[in-house]
């Protein structure tokens, strides 16, 4: 007769412990941290370039890709502090990959940290990295059914960015449907319609982040350039 | 593909709790919002045990509805992510259970 053990252990236990340490590290320095998740090609790096142009070195980016360092190079060129994680095949970042990068450099003057996850709407959703806000991004070229198809991400995301709205005349994308589905999955998520090409909507997005950050007098995000 | 690292988390938790005894069966709950594909999880769990020279345990992978607390105050089960609250029809809710993969229980040799 075998013995039954009742456990209720989470598969994420170890990751969650490291994520809690990352969260304390970031909060202790007054840094607002985002976990930015989208499909490949939705425009994460273009968004970060636009944010780097506004905030310069007070923006830090840890960017994850399976291989190549193009993204970190682009973001650093745009003015932010950036470091690349090459996951070597892993489809998502984990809390310990981020912990290593947090400790890898001084991150001087940092006010906002964006962890740009590996392009993927599925796997990154389940991994807490220690961020304050999970941000989902999709582009209109991907189709309006993305929120409905990826509920694990869109129920968890506190903010949703719909990018490439300048392409709306050329693609089939029912904005009302995408918005309604986002609302069903998380009615309290903040929604931003932007174009990183034309700059439309980026002010609203940056103001939202400035509002989430500490006031500038206490070391928060300064006024936008 | 992240099912592999989820399976690793579960296998580690099981082997630790078993403290050297043979693990005969695992009961795992795959949350509605976990983003985990149960069949792929089963495949990796078997692989992980065999890779460590252990017999693969019997697996009972359950996909229960999530448990939510609606803004209207009703605690209810949720079978599909976009379903409304059965009482008020709203979607403003807190997910109480269903975001995670949990090792609920296991059988070990006595």
Keywords:
heterodimer; A: 225 residues; Rossmann fold; 7-stranded parallel beta sheet; globular; B: alpha+beta; hypothetical protein PF0899 fold; 3-stranded mixed beta sheet; 3-stranded antiparallel beta sheet; 2 helices; 6 strands; 27% helix; elongated
Report what the structure shows.
The complex is a heterodimer of chains A (225) and B (110). Chain A is α/β, with parallel strands linked by helices. Chain A has eight helices and eight strands; from the N terminus they run βαβαβαβαββααβαβα. Chain A has a single domain, classed as Rossmann fold. Helix content of chain A is 34%, strand content 22%. A seven-stranded parallel beta sheet of chain A has the order 4-3-5-2-6-7-8, with helices on both faces. The longest helix of chain A is centred in the N-terminal third of the chain and has 16 residues, at 13-28. The model of chain A has no long low-confidence stretch (mean pLDDT 93). Chain B is built from two helices and six strands, in the order αβαβββββ. In chain B, the strands form two sheets. Chain B has a three-stranded mixed beta sheet with strand order 2-1-6, with helices on one face. A three-stranded antiparallel beta sheet of chain B has the order 4-3-5, with no helix packed on it. Chain B has one domain: hypothetical protein PF0899 fold (2-Layer Sandwich). Chain B has helices at 3-18, 38-51; strands spanning 23-30, 58-62, 66-70, 75-78, 93-97, 101-108. Classes of the chains: A alpha/beta (225), B alpha+beta (110). The A-B interface holds A 1-15, 90-92, 94, 122-123, 125-127, 148, 150-153, 155-156, 181, 183-188 and B 1-2, 5-7, 9-10, 12-14, 17-18, 24-25, 32-36, 81-82, 84, 90-92, 95, 99-110. β1 of chain A pairs antiparallel with β6 of chain B, so a sheet runs across the interface.
């Amino acid at each position: 007769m075998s013995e039954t053990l009742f456990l209720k252990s989470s598969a994420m236990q170890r990751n969650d412990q490291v994520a809690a340490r990352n969260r304390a590290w970031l909060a202790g320095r007054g840094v607002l941290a985002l976990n930015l998740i989208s499909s490949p090609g939705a425009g994460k790096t273009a968004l970060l370039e636009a944010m780097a142009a506004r905030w310069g070195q007070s923006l830090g980016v840890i960017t994850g890709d399976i291989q190549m360092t193009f993204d970190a190079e682009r973001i650093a060129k745009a003015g932010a502090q950036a470091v690349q994680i090459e996951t070597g095949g892993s489809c998502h970042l984990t809390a310990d990959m981020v912990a290593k990068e947090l400790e890898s450099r001084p991150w001087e003057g940092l006010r906002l940290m964006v962890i740009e996850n590996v392009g993927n709407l599925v796997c990154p959703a389940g991994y807490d990295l220690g961020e304050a806000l999970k941000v989902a991004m999709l582009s209109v070229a991907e189709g309006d059914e993305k929120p409905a198809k990826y509920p694990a991400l869109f129920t968890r995301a506190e903010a949703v960015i719909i990018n490439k709205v300048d392409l709306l005349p050329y693609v089939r994308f029912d904005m009302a449907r995408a918005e309604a589905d986002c609302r069903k999955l998380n009615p309290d998520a903040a929604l931003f319609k932007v174009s990183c090409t034309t700059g439309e909507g980026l002010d609203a997005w940056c103001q939202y982040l400035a509002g989430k950050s500490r006031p500038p007098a206490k070391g928060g995000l300064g006024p936008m350039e | 593909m992240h099912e592999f690292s989820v399976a690793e988390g579960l296998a580690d938790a099981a082997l630790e709790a078993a403290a050297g005894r043979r693990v005969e069966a695992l009961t795992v709950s795959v949350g509605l919002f976990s983003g985990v594909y149960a069949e792929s999880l089963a495949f990796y769990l078997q692989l992980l045990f065999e890779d460590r020279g252990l017999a693969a345990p019997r697996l009972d992978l359950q996909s229960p509805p999530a448990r939510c607390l609606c803004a209207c105050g009703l605690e209810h089960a949720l079978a599909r992510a976009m379903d409304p609250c059965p009482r008020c029809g709203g979607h403003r809710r807190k997910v109480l259970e269903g975001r995670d993969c949990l090792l609920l229980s296991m059988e070990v040799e006595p």
